[in-house]
Each structure stands twice: as structure tokens, then as C-alpha cells.
Amino acid sequence: xxxxxxxxxxxxxxxxxxxxxxxxxxxxxxxxxxxxxxxxxxxxxxxxxxxxxxxxxxxxxxxxxxxxxxxxxxxxxxxxxxxxxxxxxxxxxxxxxxxxxxxxxxxxxxxxxxxxxxxxxxxxxxxxxxxxxxxxxxxxxxxxxxxxxxxxxxxxxxxxxxxxxxxxxxxxxxxxxxxxxxxxxxxxxxxxxxxxxxxxxxxxxxxxxxxxxxxxxxxxxxxxxxxxxxxxxxxxxxxxxxxxxxxxxxxxxxxxxxxxxxxxxxxxxxxxxxxxxxxxxxxxxxxxxxxxxxxxxxxxxxxxxxxxxxxxxxxxxxxxxxxxxxxxxxxxxxxxx
Length: 337
Prior knowledge:
Layout: H1 8-16, H2 25-45, E1 55-59, E2 65-67, H3 68-82, E3 87-92, E4 99-100, E5 110-118, E6 129-137, H4 148-151, E7 160-166, E8 170-175, E9 180-186, E10 191-196, E11 207-209, H5 220-230, E12 241-242, H6 248-258, E13 261-264, E14 275-276, H7 277-290, E15 294-296, E16 313-314, E17 316-319, H8 321-331
Parallel strand pairs: 3-5, 11-12, 11-13
Antiparallel strand pairs: 1-2, 3-4, 5-6, 6-7, 7-8, 8-9, 9-10, 13-17, 14-16, 15-17
């Protein structure tokens, strides 16, 4: 192996050395998440060969039909995290209630929220999908099981957030509040290798990502912004291009690197949108802010929204700072065209 190759584990250890009080538990937790990502990646890459495609015959907490890979990814995350001794509890987008750590296993001082397989409706057509996660420090006494209040913390309390995108390569991107770093899985060594250090998103991009089939149900401010974004004028830098994959992780990852804005606003049917605050909005908002971008529900900073339940929804607009601020001006009625 190249002696200059910076693996995820090596990067975590070097970061840990900056904090004399560190115990290694946080590094161990991220390593457990990386292990689960490798297991999921292996199954995703073999999805066309194994009996892992199609519906699982079950529904998640929202009544949505689960894909077989949804169920597999959820179990992979739970098994990887449950026995490491770093968590006191975890929650998954696929489970209705808090997932406790059994009494017979050691408990740690962290909690983890995760969406085990974002974009699962694209599984059967070989489109990029992903895993999203965030980590908080527990706020209840450490000698007791984790409780709901350990999970229901505002996004600004996150210690770490990240995602894994399973595409042409498998890539893990994370932040601990000191910049954003991306690691690509090297299949030769089975290690995540630093490939995108200190990611910074452009302050303005050329891409807007939104499900325009919902256009007629959006509030006028959102409609006005989309109409404006399509126009090719000197005032908006020549107009923007529409790119929408339908996998949040994939759309976000592209816009993070190239610049742009992702929008999933509320509509007449779903006034709070369809994305989940804990599992999707908060972790990606933390990442984009650390990369120099911005995240809002149209009126409030995402990371300032107080969660009141495990599956709370929120409108979400995030991406390049200038693009998000322009969208907010339209949504708030400060601009019409």
C-alpha cells in the first residue's frame, strides 16, 4: 500500500490526536458505520445477481412498501452499531420507535440517527442510492439506557454527520464540524481512501434539483423561483440547468461538488414536505454548512428547528449559499421575478 495513502481509519486517528481527552470511542463508532457501508455496498453491487431486488412484502413506519435492500441495509446498520459499546440508543427511518442497546451489551455516550438506504425506489433501475447518518452526544445520565430526549436534539448539536453514496464508486463523506472530507472505497484494499479533502461547495451553481411534477401544488414563491431559475438572463448568470435524480444523496452529492440548489418544499398535500428532519435534513444541512453552503426550510435555518418527534417532516432547500438565499427571497415574497 502507498505509504502516503490516507485511509478513513488513519484520518480519524490523526484527527483524534488533536483532542487529548479523546478515548477512541468516536473513532470506533465511525469505523462501525464504515463497516456497515461496506457490507451494504457489497450487496448493492451484486443486486442484479442475488435475490435482493424487488419488494420485501413489508411496509415501513410511513406505510411505504419496503424494498428487500431497504430491510437488508437497516439490519446491517443495526447489527454493526448495536454491539460496539459506543451507543446508548439509535433510531432509523425504517423503524417507528427508538432502537435500544440490550442490557447485556455495554452502552456508550453517543446516539446515532440514520436513513439506511435513501433513494430505494431507484434500486431496481441501477441508479445511485445512499446511506445518511448523524451522531449526537447523549444528554441523559450515562449509566442508564438511552432515552427519546437523547435523540430529539436540534441539528446544531450534531457532533458528526455523513453520507455514503453507492454509485459508480462507493464514497463516504463526513464532517465533525471541522471541514468536510470525502473517502472513496478502494475495492483492492477494502478501505475508504481520502479522495476529496476539505470539500468546499461553490457559492453559486448552475443546477437546480426539484421534482417539478409537484409544481402545481407548490406555493407561489417556489413556483416563481423555478420560473426565474429557468430564464437565461444576465441577472441570474445565464439561467440554471435542471438535474433531478430522485435519490436525495445523489442529488445532494452532485450539487455539493459542482454547486447548485436542491429543493423539496412543502405542497398542498404535504405542507411540511416529505423529507425527515432527523434522518435527512439535519445531517445534510450540517455537511453543507461546513462546506460553505446553506440549508433552510424557506424561512428558518434547518439546524435551528427543534424536533418534536422521531419522524418529523420539514421542507428542505439546501446547497450553494447564493442560490439558497435567492430561493428564500422568492419564497418569502421579497422577489417576484
